[in-house]
C-alpha cells in the first residue's frame, strides 16, 4: 500500500478508537475462545490488528505471552490500559501489517480476527504468517465472508475486502486445516459487530 493509503487507514482506526468506549467491546471473540484449548500451554501468541486489545488481553489472562500488532496507536494505548486493568501485560507493536516483519518460526499461534484486507495484501500476509509460525504452530482466522455484503451487521462496506473460503484455501500453503467453516452466526462485539453475519472460520496447523 502507498504511504498515503497507510496514513488514511491509520487515521481511520485512530478515530474509531478515540472514544472512551471500546468499539468492539472488551470480551474475546467466540471462535478464538472455542479453539484456545488446542494451543500449546504457554506458547507465544501474535495477535494481528488487535485493536483495543480484547483478544490479546484475554489470551494473556489465560497465561499466554502475547504480542499485539496494530496500525492505530490509540488502539494499542487502550489495549495496554485494558491489560493493566486485568492484572496482565502484553507487548504492543505499532506497524503496518502489509509490510512489517513477522519473523521466521517465531510464534506458536498467530491470531487474525475480523482483519479485512485487499486480496493481494491478505495473500502476502498469510504467506508471511505461515513462515512466522513454528513447526506445529496454529493460525486462527475469522472474518466476514462474501455473503456479508449488504447485511449491515458488521464488516467493511467494500465487498472486495470480504473473505472467500476458496481463496483462503490457497493462502496457507502446506498447512493442515483443523477447522474450516462458512456460515451464519450471531456476532455481538460492541456496536460495530452486532447481529447475524456470514463468517469464515479457519484453524490451520503448520506441519511439524
TrEMBL record:
Signal peptide: none annotated. Pfam families: Methyltransf_25 (PF13649). Keywords: Methyltransferase, Transferase. Residues 45-137 form the Methyltransferase domain. GO terms for molecular function: methyltransferase activity. GO terms for biological process: methylation. Transmembrane segments: none annotated. PANTHER family: PUTATIVE (AFU_ORTHOLOGUE AFUA_2G14390)-RELATED, TRANS-ACONITATE 2-METHYLTRANSFERASE-RELATED. This is Putative SAM-dependent methyltransferase. It comes from Candidatus Propionivibrio aalborgensis.
Amino acid at each position: 500500500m502507498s504511504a498515503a493509503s497507510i496514513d488514511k487507514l491509520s487515521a481511520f482506526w485512530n478515530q474509531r478508537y478515540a472514544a472512551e468506549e471500546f468499539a468492539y467491546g472488551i470480551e474475546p471473540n467466540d471462535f478464538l475462545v472455542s479453539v484456545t484449548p488446542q494451543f500449546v500451554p504457554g506458547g507465544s501468541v501474535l495477535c494481528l490488528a488487535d485493536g483495543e486489545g480484547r483478544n490479546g488481553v484475554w489470551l494473556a489472562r489465560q497465561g499466554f505471552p502475547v504480542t499485539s500488532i496494530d496500525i492505530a496507536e490509540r488502539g494499542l494505548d487502550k489495549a495496554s490500559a485494558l491489560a493493566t486493568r486485568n492484572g496482565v501485560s502484553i507487548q504492543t507493536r505499532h506497524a503496518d501489517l502489509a509490510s512489517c516483519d513477522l519473523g521466521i518460526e517465531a510464534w506458536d499461534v498467530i491470531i487474525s480476527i475480523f482483519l479485512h484486507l485487499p486480496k493481494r495484501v491478505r495473500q502476502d500476509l498469510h504467506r508471511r504468517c505461515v513462515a512466522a509460525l513454528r513447526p506445529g504452530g496454529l493460525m486462527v482466522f475469522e472474518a466476514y465472508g462474501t455473503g456479508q455484503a449488504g447485511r449491515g451487521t458488521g464488516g467493511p462496506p467494500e465487498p472486495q475486502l470480504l473473505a472467500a473460503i476458496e481463496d483462503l484455501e490457497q493462502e496457507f500453503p502446506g498447512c493442515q486445516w483443523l477447522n474450516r467453516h462458512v456460515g451464519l452466526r450471531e456476532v455481538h462485539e460492541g456496536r460495530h459487530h452486532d447481529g447475524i453475519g456470514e463468517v469464515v472460520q479457519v484453524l490451520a496447523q503448520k506441519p511439524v
